[in-house]
Amino acid sequence: MAFELKQNLKLTQQLIMTPQLQQAIKLLQLSRLDLVDAVNQEIEENPLLEEITSDEEPDAEKKIEPEQCEEGAAEEVAQPERAVELTGEGDGREEFDWDSYVEDYGPMGVTYDRKEGTAPSWDNLLVMKSTLTDHLMWQLLLTQVTETEQRVAEQIIGNLDQNGYLVATLEEIALQEKVEPDFVAEVLKKVQEFDPPGIAAHDLQECLLIQARSLGSGRALVERIITGHLKDLEIKNYTHIARKLKVHIDDVLAAVAIITNMDPRPGSVYNEERSQAIIPDVYVIKSGDDYKIVLNDEGLPRLRISNFYREIMSGMNAGATAEDGKRYIKERVQSATWLIKSIQQRQRTIYRVAESIVRHQREFFDRGISYLKPLILRDIADDVEMHESTISRVVTNKYMHTPRGIFEMKYFFGSSIRRTGGEDMASKSVQEEIRKIIGEEDHRKPFSDQEIVERLKKVSGISIARRTVAKYREVMGVLPSSRRKKYF
Is 397 exposed, middle or buried (0-12, 13-18, 19+ CB in 10 A)? Predict the structure, then answer.
């Protein structure tokens, strides 16, 4: 068999992910906070990028025009092929008045009078929340203990988890401090007397027992229930508890009322994470009978390319070093231009998707969650002529402020549920109907999942299976009927 070389000309189509396209797609799926972090990091790495202050005209943004998009997954991302000429003022070489900066940007509501010398110390303005370890160590220092007991107590406090439970065994602590386990047990009893009640327990049962011991009279029945009937307590089988302990059901209910007011996680109050406020990416504002879409640009850095480095490049003399410098500046200019265009295209894409969502879910904005329509990514993709993968990136970690509250943009998408009469309903609307039925039930005799199925079919014409009701109930965090029952 003979081998020979031949040249063939073949025409094929390929989708190539250019670096600027990859960057644009990455920025598109970032949340607002992640986008700000990414832009700030790029400003640090790229000396040609600078942020436009509020008192300057954003000429750089006006110079960049949106480009036409291509078919497929990349049709909504602009692909700048050349750096656009951008103009800007300022080279960062002006002298800065730091005294004025401190005066102007001090804490809200705090005024400084340097002439009178009444400016408070910055140390007085800083607040640090006390941790569980700090709170327990403060109590340990106020307790009369020996040096060895203090070392063991510190080991116990240091081995508590965020809920206040002891995660180390007595033997491990004894080995660490070279003492007997019985000695560690005695010190542990002292630590368990500290505030908050129930601290330093090994498990839930011990935690509740520690809190029960702090009660006055009438704690005997409470301790008996905690010791031997936690499982019945969990499923609210109070009749079985009364029969086993040979006491009246009213006494059991009184003891259960005390137990339910105990804290199963005594240390969590000192370890609560600060809640992060949601900053919406889009505002939906009602204007007359229509809705307007407004992008939230507050807090997003506005960028431009500094002319200072352009002047440096134009003033460079010929030579190998100068050519390297020009090439570096040219690459940084192109990188900065790609970033600016990608951010602008990201904002335009979010606007178009939000506008389409408002059109599809108009009845929700007018009348409420019960009128939320079934919606899938393909519906929005066909409307705005984009790829489904792009719509998925846009609605991820993006929030919309509406007259009915703040919702994640993913909230408006959901599967459809058939009705015996009328249009199909969105799954979230069905969940809302289930929530209403549970909210109207008798707490002494809550509805079972099968009864909820029958009521949905009778009242709203919604025909779903019992397991679907159970699934939606778990999604909403609603307990089953046996655990929703209340005796008091």
Answer: middle
User: CA angle 380-381-383, nearest 5°?
Assistant: 60
- What is the residue-level pLDDT of the chain in tens, covering all 488 positions? 567 788 888 888 877 777 777 777 888 888 888 888 888 888 888 888 888 776 565 444 444 333 333 333 333 333 333 333 333 334 444 454 545 544 444 444 444 444 444 445 545 545 567 788 999 999 999 988 899 999 999 999 999 998 999 999 999 999 998 999 999 999 999 999 998 899 999 999 999 999 988 876 668 888 899 988 888 888 888 888 999 999 998 888 888 888 888 999 998 888 766 566 788 899 999 888 889 999 988 878 788 887 777 666 666 655 556 677 778 878 888 888 888 888 888 899 999 999 999 999 998 898 888 888 888 899 999 999 988 888 998 898 899 999 988 999 988 988 777 776 666 777 888 888 888 888 888 887 888 888 888 888 887 778 888 888 888 888 888 888 877 777 65
Domain residue limits, the chain = 19-78+277-414, 131-202, 203-269, 416-484
Q: Which CATH architecture has domain 416-484?
A: Orthogonal Bundle (1.10)
The span from the CA of 176 to the CA of 57, in Å, is 65
Angle, helices 377-384/320-360, rounded to nearest 10 degrees: 110
Select the CATH number that applies to the domain covering 131-202 from these four: 3.40.50.970, 3.60.20.10, 1.10.10.1330, 2.120.10.30.
1.10.10.1330
